[in-house]
Amino acid sequence: MRKSLFPLLIVLVATGATLALVSFRQAHSPTDAPICHVPAADLSLVTKKNDPPAGCVFKTVYEGEGLDPAFVLATPENVLRSEQRGLDWLVKAQAQNGGFGCGSHARQDIIDPHAVSTDPATTAMVGMALMRMGNSLDKGEHAAQLKRATEYLLSQVESAPKGAINITQLTGTQIQSKLGANIDVALTTQFLSNLVAKIGEQHGMYLRAKRALNTCVGMIQRSQNADGSVQGDGWAGVLQSSFAASALESAQNAGADVDEQALDLARDHQKANFNVNTGSVATERAAGITLYAVSGSTRNSAVEAREVTERVERAKKEGKVAMDAPVDSETLQEVGFSPAEAEKMSTAYQVYNAAKSQAQADNVISGFGNNGGEEFLSFLQTGESLVIAKDNSWKNWYGQTTKRLVDIQNQDGSWNGHHCITSPVFCTATSLLILSVNNDIEHLLAQGAVKYRN
Fold first, then answer.
1. What residues form DSSP beta bridges with 173?
2. Global pTM?
3. Which of the 8 DSSP states describes residue 431?
């Protein structure tokens, strides 16, 4: 009797084991599900503890309601291929000292990345691209390259003279000549802000990176002019000032010692470049190019515009204001802003919405007529602005911009500018930051998340 049952028992055990193994296999995602080939930097920060992430849907530090899955786009296969080709080319451009270089303004004919001096601005852009493409200091295919680039930037900051307003003695680079003499510290600040936010306080590099971040913040604030711009304008100095303002904003979000008045002054300077009433754009510091000015205005009003939108929507749901109330100073006072705050925030909201439209208009996107590094930077600012503002129009921007970039990628995987900033290293890093912006959705949303007041 027992012997006759033994074969049956073996079959049952084998069947159970097979079912258990099958249950651990990952189910295939539906074809229309978002493809997040880069995971959130720290799931303990962006999801409820012990909750598994679902696709690309994350909860930010400040947002309890989470992210609408419709806000996240799938990364098209042709974009993924383009990213990989660009990344393969870019990592080969790293110098022995860990840095990357764009070359001098005087010798733009030298395009070999190993025949130019390394500089912090280009290295910072490459470092941010490596992070956005899924690498950390400890993990990822190119973690070693990122770690070396980080060491290069930290050394640059730590060796800068006390009281300086920049982190390098190098002058005359393509980026400095076109954007401004102090662009290196602005972009390095942005890199360090991203790094600090992603590695977390327990990481062995955190304290060193945080100290360097505060040093850079101090430099930007010391270099600020009375009107909120940054000293040392280049050909398109509005972009230097815009990136400095963005750097202060992200540094504050990462817990750095940012002077609130300096940040407000920097934002106000960018908003002043756009006149909502007339639709006119101040391009004196933008080389006469509307795109450069409006992308800066959009980027540096995005956080305030999002606060206005979310505060008003919340007030409407709670019955504090009428459902058809316009977004103006009067409504914002009803929402809870002081009269001065209401006027300021209403202006930011109007500037953001008007400037973002211009920044995506075909006649404005054409910029200088062809693409230089300034155009790539402007595209990047516009896209990040739309995500930070939690603006669904980012999806249309992403489709149009990624198509443009994929179409103009070089055969070797790089991108280069056709005027002004022509450096293939700088333009490739910036293009990768644009193509992979949806990898950083949760991080960008957290930068603009509204911290509701009681």
1. 104
2. 0.81
3. H
Give Cβ neighbours of residue 52 (< 8 Å, ≥ 6 apart): none
Q: What domains lie within the chain, and their CATH numbers?
A: 35-448 (1.50.10.20)
pLDDT one digit per residue (tens) for the chain, 454 residues: 444 444 444 444 444 444 433 333 333 333 333 333 333 333 333 333 333 333 333 333 334 345 677 788 889 999 999 999 999 999 999 999 999 999 888 787 888 889 999 999 999 999 999 999 999 999 999 999 999 999 999 999 999 999 999 999 899 998 898 888 999 999 999 999 999 999 989 999 999 999 999 999 999 999 999 988 888 876 566 777 888 999 999 999 999 999 999 999 988 887 776 666 665 555 444 445 555 666 777 888 889 999 999 999 999 999 999 999 999 999 999 999 999 999 989 888 888 888 888 777 775 555 445 566 678 888 898 899 999 999 999 998 999 899 989 999 999 999 987 766 789 999 999 999 999 998 999 889 888 776 544 3
Helices 302-317, 373-388: crossing angle, 10 deg rounding: 20
Query: Residue 410 and residue 188: Cα distance in Å, rounded?
Result: 27
Q: Which of 361, 454, 363, 435 is nearest to 87 (CA)?
A: 435
Surface-to-core class of residue 6, CB atoms within 10 Å of its CB (0-12 exposed, 13-18 middle, 19+ buried):
exposed
Rounded to whole angstroms, the Cα distance separating 146 from 258 reads 26
3-state DSSP of 157-178? HHCCCCCCCCCCCCCCEHHHHH
Residue 152 neighbours by CB under 8 Å, 6+ apart: 97, 98, 99, 118, 120, 123
Q: Where are the alpha helices (DSSP H) in 284-338?
A: 290-299, 302-317, 329-335
Spatial distance between the Cα atoms of 314 and 242, rounded to a whole number of angstroms: 30
Max CA separation in the chain (angstroms):
97
The answer to whether 195 and 175 have CB atoms below 8 angstroms apart is no
Integer Cα distance of 164 and 215 in angstroms? 10
Answer positive or negative: Cα dihedral of 124, 128, 133, 139.
Answer: positive
